[in-house]
Amino acid sequence: MSDPTEANGTAGAETTEAAGTGGGAGRRHVRVVLVDDHRMFRTGVQAEIGRTEETCVEVVGEAADVDQAVTVITATRPEVVLLDVHLPGGGGVEVLRRCTALMADAEQPVRFLALSVSDAAEDVIGVIRGGARGYVTKTITGSDLVDSIFRVQEGDAVFSPRLAGFVLDAFASTDAPPVDEDLDRLTQREREVLRLIARGYAYKEIAKQLFISVKTVESHVSAVLRKLQLSNRHELTRWATARRLV
Q1: Compositional bias of type Low complexity: which residue ranges (predicted)?
Q2: What residues does each domain of the chain span?
Q3: What is the pTM of this model?
């Protein structure tokens, strides 16, 4: 897990120095924060979106969980945030919620582009409803990702081709399902735990799959049961099955 302060200072200094050397006139520039809980993935993204003759994507900070993300984003005020959907501490939706509240009066908008391995309907709709300007999957090429970043910076809505039609249908259809207020009470991580519990996974298996401790799984399950006013995992499974979350 990276130190957001250290990452911000290092990335910003190196890229700013690079941007100031030879032939930079007319180059498109954007300041970006990377939010993903896998350091190697963040490193790979930086390599893919690095400076070219025509563009300069300046990574001014990194974060690996919700608290780090909120701290770095509010401190650096980037133009675009590349945001993973599944994060320790509540997920991308929680980052959006907290940043929106903290930066409501900001003159310069911070725009969010979800970058996730997931193409699940609830993940896509959740972050778009939370305020993200787009959603692309991690199969995207480096050049397409750079293009998406600049389009989001300019205010466009950007989606991976396979998701675009689905998103339009979900938000424009007159028979789209209503907002589930019970489900919306849960954080992204609680939804992940809920789904795995409903599929019959043991606590140890869930902990291994989500890279968290068994104790943390137990805490999430308790929170889910309390918020949904359920008594045990059997009731929870029935609840999830009825909503087709399994």
Answers
A1: 1-19
A2: 4-172, 181-242
A3: 0.62
Domain 181-242 has CATH 3.30.830.10: no
Residue type, 118: S
Cα–Cα nearest to 188, from 90, 114, 115 = 90
**What tens digit of pLDDT does each residue of 8-36 get?**
444 443 444 444 434 455 688 999 999 99
Distance of alpha carbon 41 from alpha carbon 116, whole angstroms: 11
Question: How many Cβ atoms from other residues are within 10 Å of residue 172's Cβ?
Answer: 8
| CATH class of the structural domain 4-172 | alpha beta
User: Residue 8 corresponds to which tokens in the numbers above?
Assistant: 């911000």
Token look-up 């993200």 returns 132
Residue 41 burial (CB < 10 Å; 0-12/13-18/19+)? middle
What confidence tens digit (pLDDT) does each residue in 168-223 have? 666 665 444 455 677 778 887 888 888 888 888 899 988 888 888 999 999 999 99
Contacts with 154 (C-beta within 8 Å, 6 or more apart), sequence order: none
Cα(124)–Cα(126) distance, integer angstroms: 5
